[in-house]
Design goal:
By secondary structure, this protein is mainly β. It has eight helices and 40 strands. The strands form twelve sheets. Strands 1, 3, 5, 8, 9, 10 and 11 form a seven-stranded mixed β-sheet that branches. Strands 23, 27, 29, 32, 33 and 34 form a six-stranded mixed β-sheet that branches. 33% of the residues are buried. Mean pLDDT is 89; it is low at 1-29.
């Protein structure tokens, strides 16, 4: 006699698995026997899922999460599984397999249609509970947990057991569909060091993405993981060693570290609608990520003076750009002892143009700008009280006298930087500095209204720095003012400016 089934349970199970390429069993009374030729859904660790698919000696790691609710949210992490309810990490992929030969599954967890699971999470301040039934319970079950399928799925991996008792999973079997997609690639991403977006409705509308492989012309493949690398189906991002934390979660870069300098040619998707491939136009993964760049004052300060002041709780604005500094005492602008951190374009010392500052490259083509290398040198002669002095500036120091947007390639990620992108008009735009604000509790300030350096002078105590690249003054009235070397910034702790009274 067949067991009676709850109509509510059956309807829910059908809705939750709609569009899947494999079937949900009728509710059984007992666990099912697994033998050669059986088809299962199984929880497969990322490394083992991708091992047969990749030409890459570095294993695909688990995804570690700081935003723990997302790991346990099926609409965000569908196709993956996690071992426990901590939300600390995603362990791998739940994928159909075909049992090949003798496989001993004793001691492993078999999920049946009698199993249920309720997960309560809080996302964006809103608590929600989702019920999972039957095969869906694998979402929060141990590695190698499995569910016996009634029918052969449209795609699967072959499961074999090795002599030592370990499992191995073959390449994915199933029909491969070619998908046409527009690809957008950028070095600027909030989700990693590189980001690839694919504009293709066929990918955007699939219900579940189990995994994605990015392949290169050089023959290396890279397996991507849910949440850190795959989100919204067609947005792919990864870290190669520069970005160590994304949205509070530590990143895993070892598997992707060899990618810079290679050329992306293909993306393979494993989805609930089968295997889909996207051919890419050759996309070069530029290994250059950070440079020192000459940034004009107006560009350097633009997004520093249009930010929200967290202490005052008001918007900070100033629509008047920061101008270059024009000098009558030309030797001072040519002296790094007085103008360190700045640069000038004109060799006559008539002005200071802006700031030489570390930059992370976003959407920008460097070929139209001057590159300064270790072979470059600039000889500058200045006159002082003791006569003339000639100084030779070599390598990155040669940026001191060079064009705006000249750059020098950095081999390591700097501790502080701005990110540069190109806007719709082809102009460079620079973000605010990436570093967190440090409050100096012991600092002191004295404002003078009589000074030979301007209309106002601010002497700041308690600040120690070898080089000051820039200074922003904020007011409670919502304005901000960027200061420049020599006219406004001198001796690190002394600041002065004119408001119209002093010419």
């Amino acid at each position: 006699m067949k067991a009676r089934k709850s109509l509510a349970v059956c309807l829910t199970a059908a809705l939750l698995t709609a569009g899947a390429a494999f079937s949900v069993n009728a509710l059984p009374e007992n666990e099912k026997i697994v033998e050669d030729g059986s088809y299962l859904l199984m929880n497969i660790p990322y490394h083992e899922f991708y091992q047969a698919e990749l030409n890459n000696d570095t294993a695909v790691d688990v995804y570690t999460s700081a935003t723990k609710a997302k790991v346990r949210t099926g609409t965000l992490a569908g196709g993956s599984y996690h071992v426990d309810d901590s939300g600390d990490r995603i362990d791998g992929v739940t994928f159909p397999v075909k049992v090949t030969g003798t496989v001993d599954l004793s001691g492993l967890t078999q999920v049946t249609d009698r199993d249920t699971l309720s997960i309560t999470v809080t996302n964006r301040g809103k608590e929600s509970t989702t019920d999972y039934y039957g095969s869906q319970v694998l979402f929060e079950r141990p590695t190698y947990s499995y569910y016996v399928l009634d029918e052969a799925p449209a795609f699967y991996k072959e499961l074999r057991q090795n002599a030592d008792g370990s499992f191995s999973f073959g390449k994915a079997q199933g029909e491969v569909t070619e998908v046409q997609a527009q690809a957008t690639f950028t070095r600027a991403s909030n989700y990693g060091d590189y980001q690839l977006n694919l504009d293709a409705e066929e990918l955007q509308t699939v219900g579940t993405v189990y995994g994605v492989i990015v392949s290169t012309k050089e023959g290396t493949d890279y397996g991507l993981r849910h949440m850190e690398n795959i989100w919204r189906n067609t947005n792919l991002a990864w870290c190669t060693g520069d970005t160590t934390v994304v949205h509070g979660s530590p990143t895993s870069s070892e598997h992707y570290a060899s990618m810079p300098g290679q050329t992306l040619t293909e993306v393979t998707y494993f989805t609930d609608e089968g295997i889909k491939k996207v051919s890419l136009p050759d996309i070069y993964v530029d290994p250059v990520k950070y440079v020192l760049m000459n940034i004009p004052y107006a560009d350097f300060y633009q997004n520093e003076v249009n930010i929200s002041n967290p202490r005052a709780g008001i918007e900070i604005n100033n629509d008047v750009p920061v101008d270059i500094y024009s000098s009558a005492t030309k030797s001072k602008t040519l002296n790094t002892g007085l103008a360190a951190g700045s640069y000038h374009v004109n060799a006559d010392g008539s002005d200071i143009t802006g700031v030489t500052y570390p930059v992370k490259l976003g959407d920008i083509d460097l070929t139209e700008y001057r590159q300064v290398t270790d072979a470059d040198q600039v000889e500058i002669t200045t006159s002082g009280r003791g006569g003339t002095t000639t100084t030779v500036y070599e390598g990155k120091d040669a940026l001191f006298q060079s064009d705006s947007y000249s750059y020098y390639i950095l081999t390591e990620a700097p501790a502080y930087y701005k990110t540069v992108n190109t806007d719709e008009n082809g102009q460079l735009t620079f973000t605010a500095d990436n570093t967190a604000e440090t409050v100096i509790e012991e600092a002191s300030a004295e404002l003078l209204t009589e000074t030979k350096y301007g209309d106002y002078q601010l002497n700041v105590g308690g600040l120690e720095a070898n080089t000051v690249y820039g200074v922003v003054l904020y007011t409670n009235e919502g304005n901000a003012y960027g200061l420049r070397d020599l006219e406004n910034i001198w001796r690190v702790n002394n600041l002065a400016w004119c408001t119209g009274f002093t010419d």
